[in-house]
Design goal:
Layout (H helix, E strand, L loop, with lengths): L3 E4 L7 H12 L4 E3 L6 E5 L3 H11 L8 E3 L3 H5 L2 E2 L2 H10 L4 E7 L5 H4 L4 E5 L4 H10 L3 E3 L13 H8 L5 E4 L10 E4 L6 E4 L5 H7 L13 H4 L35 E5 L14 H10 L5 H9 L3 E5 L2 E5 L6 H17 L4 E5 L7 H11 L2 E3 L1
Parallel strand pairs: 1-9, 2-9, 4-7, 6-10, 12-15, 12-16, 14-15
Antiparallel strand pairs: 2-3, 3-8, 4-8, 5-6, 6-7, 10-11, 13-14
Helix pairs in contact: 1-6, 11-12
Bound molecules: threonylcarbamoyladenylate and magnesium ion.
The site of threonylcarbamoyladenylate has 28 residues, from strand 6, strand 7 and strand 11.
Length: 374
């Protein structure tokens, strides 16, 4: 299959281009498209054959449900039961990076929800995503447009890298603005719970739901750390300790992982890595003489001045003094992908405090990490 890329401008979109993509969906195909968070890989919600294509193109396990993207509230009525709390959250955070897990209605195919009685729904704020849903005339079911287990794509190039030859069409509207996937909130249980932290933060949500708890893994590095995983090892099991069942299907898989071995150093730790800081100048020279663009340069481009290179195999990303965490969130996955492309073998990341968007950043880093130093 040849993969076509259509470039379009977020603000002044050409209608014919959106129409071409909508037609692919209407004819039973799948399309990768931008949202404000990351690129999604979409199919018409009621097209079971196309939903299957999403799972096979991404190599996604069939037990990991998709997110249904809507463009207006009328779409929602057929899909899910919106409780008063859901309506309140929608009013405050939609369109935007908040996904709500609600009780599903019969028109939602089991394939999209992996057989669950609930369905995840969100209204994206990206104009191209909204225009595509409207032109298609139906909600679009879409996971992130990466190969399963790889960092989510924040550019059309990332999508192409993972899914070249596996999808017919990619809509390219440039880099996404948020850079991390949406916050996922489960409203089908009491109390409501954050299943995946994202750009809509715990602190913002708590203002609407004063009894809300942080998502279960915030600040709990221990259950991941103690086991040293080799890259490619089985993922840590993301279990609710009481029930021993996965909290959200997606949480049991290793995610967002670069090919390099990522070591995450929790905030407050300085000693362990001191050794790695020796002789940075010599290492830099070595890197340059080996003809490899230095990871420091990649980070400078992507994440500012905070990266250091030690040798051609190791990059250090020090986020501790980074003031602009939104920018870190926006460029995190892109940075991990560039380092993989440069063949870096080890990435050491000094983490940030888990508050605000730092919560989502650390959540993704934990899942990407082979080793966490606490
Ligand atoms: O920002 C985003 O959410 C992006 C863009 C494309 O919208 N999408 C995205 O989709 O990240 P995906 O499939 O990569 O992540 C969806 C997450 C998974 O962890 C999945 O397990 C969870 O949402 N999920 C979906 N339906 C669910 C349900 N009914 N109950 C619990 N979790 C659910
Ligand atoms: Mg995903």
């Amino acid at each position: 299959m040849k993969t076509k890329i259509i470039r379009l401008n977020s603000r002044h979109q050409e209608k014919e281009k959106i129409q071409e993509a909508a037609q692919v969906l209407q004819q039973g195909g799948i399309v990768a498209f931008p949202t404000e968070t990351v690129y999604g890989l979409g199919a018409r919600l009621t097209d079971r054959a196309a939903l299957k294509k999403i799972f096979s193109a991404k190599k996604r396990p069939a037990d990991n449900p998709l997110i249904v993207h809507v463009a207006d509230y009328a779409d929602l009525a057929d899909i899910a039961e919106a409780t008063p709390l859901a309506k309140k959250l929608m009013k405050k955070f939609w369109p935007g990076p908040l996904t709500l897990v609600l009780k599903k209605k019969p028109m939602v195919p089991d394939l999209a929800t992996a057989g669950l009685k609930s369905v995840a729904v969100r209204m994206p704020s990206h104009p191209v995503a909204l225009a595509l849903i409207k032109a298609t005339g139906e909600p679009i079911a879409a996971p992130s447009a990466n190969l399963a287990g790889r960092p989510s794509p924040t550019t059309a190039e990332h999508v192409y890298h993972d899914l070249k030859g596996r999808v017919p069409l990619i809509l390219d509207a440039g880099e996404t603005t948020v850079g991390l996937e949406s916050t996922v909130m489960d409203l089908t249980h009491t109390p409501p719970a954050i299943l995946r932290p994202g750009a809509v933060t715990f602190e913002e949500l708590k203002k609407v739901m004063p009894n809300l708890h942080p998502h279960p893994f915030r600040g709990v590095a221990r259950q991941f750390i103690c086991r040293k995983k080799k890259a490619g090892d089985k993922p840590p099991r993301y279990l609710n300790q009481q029930k021993e069942t996965p909290l959200a299907p997606g949480m049991k898989y290793r995610h967002y992982a670069p090919q390099a071995k990522l070591t995450l150093v929790m905030p407050g730790i300085t000693k362990v890595i001191a050794r790695e800081r020796e002789r940075p100048k010599q290492s830099r020279r070595y890197t340059e003489s080996a003809g490899i663009a230095s990871p420091a340069k990649i980070f400078k481009k992507n994440l500012g001045r905070l990266a250091m290179t030690h040798n051609k195999n190791t990059a250090i990303l020090d986020l501790r003094q980074e003031k602009n965490l939104k920018k870190v969130a926006r460029r995190l996955f892109a940075s991990l992908r560039s380092l993989d492309q440069k063949g870096v073998k080890n990435i050491i990341v000094y983490g940030v405090p888990e508050k605000g968007i730092g919560d989502a950043i650390m959540n993704r880093l934990r899942k990407a990490a082979s080793r966490i130093i606490e």
